[in-house]
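Bumping my old thread because nobody answered last time. Still need a sequence for this structure:
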């Protein structure tokens, strides 16, 4: 980080937006699997280094926005808080820290946390010696493969008895028993740690003690019965990882077993977790917070209120929140905004042809015969996730409904199906039942959800209507209403994960109409909006979310922002694209394999591959090395497993996956005719899409909101889904390019524009736009954070271009960018002469990119404004 501060400042960046920096699982590539929120991850640096970075940023008047993870931590041996719970159970000060249900009705889960990381059932793992009891500097540990879990204090007594039985050693027996007694005395973790470490050191320093302990351990490890008896004494139960698909007694992040959720609604947990982060804030090292997965919290409103109180009014706080159409963050939340997925959606739709998208939808339906509608796919996949991957959570919710005495002589199965229907029918990720009555918008959402649930399960009409009456407060007395609120708040913690897994991580890999819209925050069923609609959305955004991030690429996006623009362009080349696809299906028939009597890849997967190749095609137009092939291989395997159609993560269909990989390899073989057909077409798409990339960039940097530039995206971003989009960034190259732009600028604007236009493939145009506008924002921030947003009329119709102004305190800029570019440009460098639209722009103006000046008493020609450079930002003189 230290090495790029100067570059970022020169580029114009005002704030560093960092993924979690606290200690995470060893080798973590992202930091969201936190193991200790009170220390800096030693794999990325030290607290001293962070303070040094903070000082350097402060000297440049730059800020630090920190991503925090209040919903979950790593379920890993490195998480000492969780290990202390496994060790001491209710005697641990962290006993209430994690969201665990120790009252699960399954006998072997009652009072015990499941540890679901075995590759087989417990008995088989014991027989195969996959589980061993060890003694070392870590103390007594249950070693499972390469992981080490503490021997629970309850098992110390059994172990001590075995030592005495085998070694006739009463002193060691008493020593182990005494240690366990002290561990259960309720001492703090630090005191227990010191006591245990002292005891371990004493044993290790006494060879006779060690020999007797190790001999007893050897007897246990070589005796399956003794090992089973020992494990029965544990405060946790080791089990197969797939068991969580059917039953589970802790809340996890989505369906990820190794991320265990926290009880952040507990004020003590909140205070303990944020102590270190708050210290960083008070020291002036971090200046803002981005809350990861806020929808997983039991009471987000309460959490935000506490966070705001702790960090103060001056702290910039936003939340990761996926908003559906016409949905807004609750006004009662004391936030500055969201992390900006909705902005991605708005811009993506603006830059997609509605007419072309409709043509491609019809083509897709013809191509993939029998493909259900997007809405049906979503419902089917949410059902699949609930029944196959979240059945344990579903059972827990059903059981809680009855435990809270909310039943009215209904059968358990009918209530279970009612809960499922409501979860699947909910049209947003979740609502927030912390206020009564609900806000009008949330009440309407629930009204729609109950209506849809009833259509889905008419056989559960009585149960659905009863639950709706409970929800509306019409069915029960105050205690019952309180209990229902408890149940409903819990239910909402799982509708988000269900939607994310059913939509983002399943449907987005199945519904391949135009995959640029299979994106976090977007909706593939609505691929296009009009300019007028976009203007209206931006006006609302300025009023309600002027400080939300404007995101176009993030670590969670399915493909890079510029890859999306390429795929969007296909909607403006619909007829040509359709013919190309038909040609390729015929051309590549001999390349497909037959797996179990079916052509592989399937038609749907093959169409996905073609679109992905267009999006990820090298900017040079030539796959000169194996990099693209290797990246495509990893990407397609992940896509196939996420789709759950022809493969999955639980039981990968390796034959099918390998056939798809071989298909891609053969397509990209220089000897195959496909490359000769793909390359010129991909080059043509790439040229047009580069213009839309600039349009997307200029809108991101000037529309209401705070622009978010994902790592390295000041140049082209053609990445696939993670981990591809988390590859190291070549900052040396970017420094050099920025230096070249700076030097060319000294020669004058004509020389600069000529240089970046000629070298557009390397991304100079995009860097220039980013650099110029970031500096413009830095010099006049209030113009963008508070300035009025006004559409600028275009006399030849809204399909010609998009234009709007930002105005504040006598300062004004006009943003002009082309639309329908395939019909407006003869090629990348030549604006078609038929582009004859005029824009109402009286006054004297200067283009901040080209330095050109324009004067008009009424209108300016788009042809004139956009002739030298594809986009324009004019400042009023």
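Sorry it took so long. Here it is:
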């Amino acid at each position: 980080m230290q090495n790029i501060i100067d570059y970022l400042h020169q580029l114009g960046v005002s704030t560093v937006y960092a993924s979690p920096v606290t200690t995470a699982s060893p080798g973590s590539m992202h930091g969201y699997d936190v193991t200790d929120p009170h220390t800096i991850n030693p794999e990325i640096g030290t607290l001293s280094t962070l303070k040094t970075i903070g000082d350097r940023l402060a000297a440049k008047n730059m800020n630090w926005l920190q991503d925090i993870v209040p919903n979950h931590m790593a379920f890993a041996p490195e998480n000492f808080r969780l290990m202390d719970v496994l060790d001491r159970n209710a005697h641990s000060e962290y006993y209430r820290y994690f969201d665990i249900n120790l009252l699960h009705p399954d006998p072997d889960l009652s009072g015990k946390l499941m540890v679901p990381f075995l590759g087989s059932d417990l008995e088989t793992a014991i027989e195969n010696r996959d589980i061993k009891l060890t003694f070392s500097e870590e103390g007594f540990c249950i070693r499972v493969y390469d992981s080490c879990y503490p021997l629970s204090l309850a098992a110390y007594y059994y172990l001590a008895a075995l030592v005495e039985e085998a070694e006739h050693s009463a002193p060691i027996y008493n020593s182990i028993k005494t240690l366990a007694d002290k561990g259960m005395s309720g001492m703090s973790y630090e005191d227990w740690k010191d006591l245990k470490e002292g005891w371990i050191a004493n044993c290790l320093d006494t060879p006779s003690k060690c020999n007797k302990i190790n001999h007893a351990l050897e007897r246990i490890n070589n005796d399956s019965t003794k090992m089973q008896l020992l494990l029965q004494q544990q405060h946790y139960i080791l089990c197969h990882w797939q068991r969580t698909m059917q039953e589970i007694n802790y809340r996890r992040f989505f369906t990820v077993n190794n991320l265990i959720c926290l009880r952040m609604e507990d004020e003590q947990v909140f205070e303990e977790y944020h102590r270190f982060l708050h210290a960083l804030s008070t020291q002036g090292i971090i200046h803002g917070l981005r809350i990861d997965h806020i929808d997983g919290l039991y009471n987000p409103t309460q959490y935000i209120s506490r966070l705001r109180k702790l960090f103060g009014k001056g702290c910039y706080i936003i939340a990761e929140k996926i908003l559906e159409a016409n949905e807004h963050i609750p006004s009662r939340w004391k936030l500055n905004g969201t992390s900006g997925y909705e902005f991605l959606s708005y811009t993506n739709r603006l830059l997609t042809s509605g007419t072309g998208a409709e043509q491609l939808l019809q083509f897709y339906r013809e191509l993939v015969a029998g493909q259900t509608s997007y809405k049906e796919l979503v419902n089917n996949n949410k059902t699949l996730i609930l029944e196959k991957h979240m059945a344990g959570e579903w059972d827990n919710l059903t059981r809680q409904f009855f435990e809270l005495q909310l039943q009215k002589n209904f059968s358990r199965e009918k209530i279970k199906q009612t809960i499922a229907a409501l979860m699947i029918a909910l049209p947003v990720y979740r609502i927030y039942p912390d206020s009564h009555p609900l806000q009008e918008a949330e009440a309407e959402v629930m009204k729609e959800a109950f209506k849809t649930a009833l259509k889905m399960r008419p056989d559960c009409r009585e149960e659905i209507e009863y639950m709706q009456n409970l929800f509306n407060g019409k069915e029960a007395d105050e205690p019952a209403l309180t209990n229902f609120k408890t149940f409903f708040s819990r239910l909402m913690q799982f509708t988000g994960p269900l939607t994310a897994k059913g939509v983002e991580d399943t449907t987005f890999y199945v519904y391949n109409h135009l995959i640029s819209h299979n994106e976090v925050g977007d909706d593939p069923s609505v691929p296009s909006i009009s300019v007028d609609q976009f203007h209206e959305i931006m006006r609302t955004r300025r009023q309600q979310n002027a400080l939300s991030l404007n995101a176009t690429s993030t670590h969670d996006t399915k493909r890079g922002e510029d890859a999306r623009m390429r795929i969007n362009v296909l909607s403006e080349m619909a007829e040509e694209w359709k013919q190309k696809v038909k040609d390729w299906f015929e051309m590549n028939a001999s390349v497909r394999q037959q797996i179990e009597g079916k052509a592989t890849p399937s038609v749907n997967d093959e169409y996905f591959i073609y679109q992905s190749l267009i999006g990820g095609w090298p900017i040079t137009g030539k796959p000169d090395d194996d990099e693209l092939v290797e990246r495509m291989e990893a990407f397609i395997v992940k896509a196939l497993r996420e789709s759950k159609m022809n493969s999955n993560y639980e039981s990968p269909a390796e034959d099918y996956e390998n056939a798809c990989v071989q298909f891609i390899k053969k397509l990209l073989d220089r000897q195959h005719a496909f490359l000769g057909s793909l390359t010129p077409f991909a080059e043509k798409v790439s040229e047009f899409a580069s213009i839309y990339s600039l349009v997307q960039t200029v809108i991101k940097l000037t529309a209401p909101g705070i622009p978010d530039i994902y790592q390295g995206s000041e140049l082209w971003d053609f990445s696939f889904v993670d981990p591809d989009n988390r590859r190291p960034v070549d900052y040396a190259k970017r420094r050099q390019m920025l230096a070249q732009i700076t030097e060319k600028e000294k020669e004058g604007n004509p020389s600069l524009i000529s240089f970046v236009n000629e070298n557009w493939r390397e991304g100079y145009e995009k860097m220039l736009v980013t650099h110029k506008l970031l500096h413009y924002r830095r010099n006049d921030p209030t113009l963008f954070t508070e300035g009025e947003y006004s559409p600028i009329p275009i006399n030849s119709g809204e399909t010609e271009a998009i234009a709007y102004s930002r105005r504040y305190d006598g300062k004004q800029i006009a943003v002009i960018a082309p639309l329908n570019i395939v019909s407006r440009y003869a090629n990348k460098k030549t604006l078609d002469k038929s582009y004859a639209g005029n824009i109402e722009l009286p006054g004297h103006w200067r283009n901040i990119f080209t330095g050109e000046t324009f004067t008009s008493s009424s209108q300016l020609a788009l042809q004139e404004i956009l002739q030298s450079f594809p986009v324009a930002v004019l400042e009023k003189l």
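The CA atoms of residues 813 and 832 lie 26 Å apart. Let me know if any region looks off to you.
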